[in-house]
Each structure stands twice: as C-alpha cells, then as structure tokens.
Amino acid sequence: MAGSEMSTTCCIVGAGPAGMMLGLLLARAGVDVVVLEKHADFFRDFRGDTIHASTLDLIDQLGLREEFLRIPQNSITTLDVVVGGTRLTPVDFGTLRGPNKRIALMPQWDFLDLLAQEGRTLDNFRLLMETGATGLLHDGAEVTGVQAAGPEGALAIAADLTVAADGRGSTIRGAAGLHPKALGVPIDVLWFRLPTPPSPPPDTLGYLRNGSILITIPRTGYYQMGLLIPKNGFTTIKAGGLDALKAHIRTNTPFLAAAAESLRDWDQIRLLSVQLDRLPDWSVPGLLCIGDAAHAMSPVFGVGVNYAVQDAVAAARLLAPPLLAGLPTANAMRRFQRRREWPVRLMQPLQAQVHKLLAGAGGVDSMPPWQARLATLASKAARPITARLVGRGFRPERLRRKGRKDLRR
C-alpha cells in the first residue's frame, strides 16, 4: 500500500464539536483514538457559535468549567424578538433548573481549542491536523479504516471503528453509500457582520418588520447578522445591488442604519444554504455517522452544535465498552441510533414549522395594541417550555449516571 500506515481503535473523521467531544470522551475512557482535521487550525467562520445549557452542563461534568470561563465570551439569558415594533421575550433561561441558565456566545474555534488542549494531555488521543479523509478501507462489506492525505502524503489508518463526524457534506458518509433524506427548507441565510452602534438596544435575537427578518447575535464589538431570504434567492438579491440590501437593514433595524454602510462589497457576505435532513441508517459495518453527518439541523433555535455534542456523549458511552473489550460494535451503533434519533425526529419538525412561519412573517409592519398584549402574554406563559426546549433540547445526555461508571478521567 502506497504511503504511510498507522492503526488505532477508533478513527474519527472531522474535528468539529461532535468529533472532538467524542475523541476526548473515548480517550478518557481508555480507547485509543485518532481524530482527523483537514484544516491547519480551527480559526474559521463557523455558523454555530452558541453553547447552550445542555453543553455547559457537560463542560461542568468534564471538570473544565474554569478553563471554559477563561475564554472570552458573551452571555444571553433571554431570547428577545421584535415583531412589528413590539418586543417579545418568548425564551427566558432563568426558568431552567441547575447552575447554567444562559447561552454562551464564543467563537467555535475557541471551544474546539479547549477540547483539543484537553485531549492532548492524554497519551491515547491523537489529533492529526491538515489531514483529510479521501476514502475508506474495506474488508469485504466492512469498513476497516480510512484513506487520508496529510502533510507528508498519503496515509492509511486501520481502525476497529471509523466515525464520520465531518458535517452535512460528509465525504465519508457518501463513500460508505449512505445518503440523507432531505426534509425541505424554504429559506437560506445571508451571514455577515456589522459593528455595534454606540448606543445599542437590549440584546435581541431577531427583528421581523417591513418584509425582512434579521438575526442580530451580539458579539464583542459587532453583531453577527443573519438575513433570511427565500431558498435559492441569493442570485436575485445580488442582482438588486448592495444598496438595496442596505435599505432592507435600515428599514428593519433603524439603529443599524449607520453600521450598514460598513458593507462595501459582496465578499463580506456569505450564503448559508440551510439544510434539514436525516439518514435512514446511521451506520454500516465498521462505520458510524454522528452530528450533522447523520442529521443536519437548521439554524432555528441554534441547537445544531449542541445536538452534535449530545450525540458524542451517547456514542462514547455506548461504544467505549465494546471497543475496550475488542468486541463488535454493530449492536452499540444500533442502540446509539435508537437513542439519538427520536430527539432529532422531535426537533426537526419543529424547525421545519418555524421555517414556514418565518417565510411568511417578514411582512409584519406593526401589531395593533390588543394583538401586542396577547402576544406578550403568550410569550410569557411559554417561557418555561421554550427555555427547556432551546436550552437543553430533547433527551439531554449526561456523563455521569447514578450507580454507573462515568466517562471522566
């Protein structure tokens, strides 16, 4: 076989939140792990930078709270939306139980660096940067490892188990003959930054008014902006010109009128093609898909990163025993899909319903007083449910279980 060769117990393709968390947890449990990351570092513009209460709980259970808090970050304790000039607070994380009653906002590269630094303290954890998977190794119908390319050329990695954690465009998933079923999404998102004005309003998730829906995620010194547009509508918007886009921003969010002038060319704006899909089968012999490679979540509620991390915890708990014992993992992989599929099946239809509502909600110009009062009362009544739904999701995982050995070091 051309190139270099190595072997491991578990090879994880993709060092995003799912792959890094799974690698760390398996290594802590004593499993030999190799994690592949095709880029030279984590310093990229990710779409998922929200760390919800479910993941903050896991950070605590990992014993990394102090290290996590040293990372510069912002916090959101409520999710406000302004609809036709009326401010609503449908989500208040103060209603959650436990110490974590917020969403942490930090660049995803900082979160991944934290997990990588912790992993590197373990002898059985290897993170190979600038090393991308190019294909799979097989023994008959069974996946037996990964073909990769790194700084020193071709590399064949033999593994008892291969995990595809390389996102919604997973090359490894496709190489294994697994294809997701698209659930249909009527919107895309334009992703860009605007500087924070001198006197900003209270932190607000989004503004719905005058035919526009704008997401405003507060960061240090700037807003991470998201403009919802019709699916495949970016070409039409670009044809209308940058001035028309700025006009959308000014009419929807007047306090950002001056900030909108910082947009000088289309290179500052990225198109995020929103996907919502799910694999019918999350595994084949020798290979398991987790996170977006198994189920792409939409940006609605910002749960994608957190569901990926939950996948990693469940996978580590179920896979570590057979991997350590040198036993087949097929049964553990089936149990993993049964455990994690139903939280996804519950969340994805909710996201799809919100897509439909948002696709038709941008035309709201104002709300009559009676409607504003009714909306305010309804949003207040829903807060305990929405906080749980957004903050922890369906079936949040834990590292520790009463009466059972945990996955901590």
TrEMBL record:
Residues 8-323 form the FAD-binding domain. InterPro entries: FAD-bd, FAD/NAD-bd_sf, PheA/TfdB_FAD_monoxygenase. It holds the Pfam family FAD_binding_3. The keyword Oxidoreductase applies. Gene3D superfamilies: FAD/NAD(P)-binding domain (3.50.50.60). Keywords: Oxidoreductase. NCBIfam families: PRK06185.1-3. This is FAD-dependent oxidoreductase.
